[in-house]
């Protein structure tokens, strides 16, 4: 398969996703929309991966390419292409599926435990720790199954159309280098200073093994998603 990866910010890259795709024999192209590259043609790829970003999904004035990206995502969902979204990307998929997207009660920053929902179709542990960096959240789309929730966000992800479309609020793809760059270069999500679910930089970077433990979780998730793609 050839996957299109859509990047919306210089500080929210593909992380381990690119290496995983290569190791599994899949090719990919990263489209740097934040740098002025146009969204790809859906016909040129077998699926979409929408990475995180800081912008509002409807801010077409500041980001004129967003309208084209929303149409691309809509066509992929309608046309049976596999679509995976992380953070901003998940919010865009959720919105295209008719779910409410908006500001959550609290910002979630750092390492937080996710508890799998009883009806979750995800092949993941019943409890796992993921990296989080958000204030914006989404509701569960109609006909979607939930990943599960955290203390700060009850909907941490969803699977739609038998897993062909996946949305993740949390991050399983990040490396220590990715997060170090994020902490150094990007503003924290709105409300981080007052949130009971926001950790300091020192706490976030204290245990490098947390990043290593994300790798098998990402592998399980991406393997499930790829298997759901139409033959």
Report on the structure:
With 231 residues, this protein is of the alpha/beta class. It has helices spanning 16-23, 66-78, 88-96, 176-185, 201-205, 209-227, and strands at residues 2-7, 27-32, 47-50, 83-86, 101-116, 127-138, 144-146, 148-149, 157-160, 165-168. The strands form 2 sheets. Strands 2-1-3-4-10-9-7 form a 7-stranded mixed β-sheet, sandwiched between helices. A 3-stranded antiparallel β-sheet has the order 6-5-8. Strand 1 (2-7), helix 1 (16-23) and strand 2 form a beta-alpha-beta unit. The mean pLDDT is 94.
Q: Could you write a compact summary of the structure shown?
A:
28% of the residues lie in helices and 26% in strands. The chain is of the alpha/beta class. It has a seven-stranded mixed β-sheet, sandwiched between helices. Strands 6-5-8 form a three-stranded antiparallel β-sheet.
> What would you report as the Rg, rounded to the nearest angstrom?
16 Å
- Fraction of residues in β-strands: 25-35%
What is the overall shape? globular
- Identify low-pLDDT runs: none
Straight-line N-to-C gap: 10 Å
Tell me roughly what share of residues is in helical segments. 25-40%
Largest sheet: 7 strands, mixed
Oligomer: single chain
Estimated structural class: alpha/beta
Q: Got a strand count?
A: 10
Q: What does the average pLDDT come to?
A: 94
Give a topology summary.
Blueprint: E1 2-7, H1 16-23, E2 27-32, E3 47-50, H2 66-78, E4 83-86, H3 88-96, E5 101-116, E6 127-138, E7 144-146, E8 148-149, E9 157-160, E10 165-168, H4 176-185, H5 201-205, H6 209-227
């Amino acid at each position: 398969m050839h996957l299109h990866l859509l990047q919306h910010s210089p500080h929210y890259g593909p992380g381990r996703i690119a290496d995983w795709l290569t190791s599994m024999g899949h090719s990919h192209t990263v489209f740097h929309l934040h740098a002025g590259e146009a969204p790809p043609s859906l016909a040129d790829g077998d699926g979409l991966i929408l990475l995180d970003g800081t912008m509002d999904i409807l801010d077409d004035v500041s980001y004129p390419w967003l309208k084209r990206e929303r149409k691309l995502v809509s066509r992929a969902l309608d046309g049976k292409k596999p679509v995976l979204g992380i953070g901003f990307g998940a919010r865009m998929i959720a919105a295209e599926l008719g779910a409410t997207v908006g500001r959550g009660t609290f910002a979630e920053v750092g390492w937080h435990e996710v508890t799998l929902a009883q009806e979750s179709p995800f092949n993941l542990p019943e409890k796992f720790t993921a990296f989080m960096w958000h204030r914006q959240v989404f509701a569960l789309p109609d006909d979607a199954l939930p990943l599960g929730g955290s203390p700060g966000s009850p909907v941490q992800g969803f699977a739609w159309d038998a897993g062909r479309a996946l949305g993740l609020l949390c991050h399983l793809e990040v490396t220590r280098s990715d997060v170090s760059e994020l902490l150094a270069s990007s503003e924290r999500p709105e409300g981080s200073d007052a949130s009971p679910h926001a950790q300091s930089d020192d706490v976030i970077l204290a245990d490098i093994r947390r990043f290593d433990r994300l790798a098998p979780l990402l592998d399980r998730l991406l393997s499930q998603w790829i298997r759901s793609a139409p033959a």
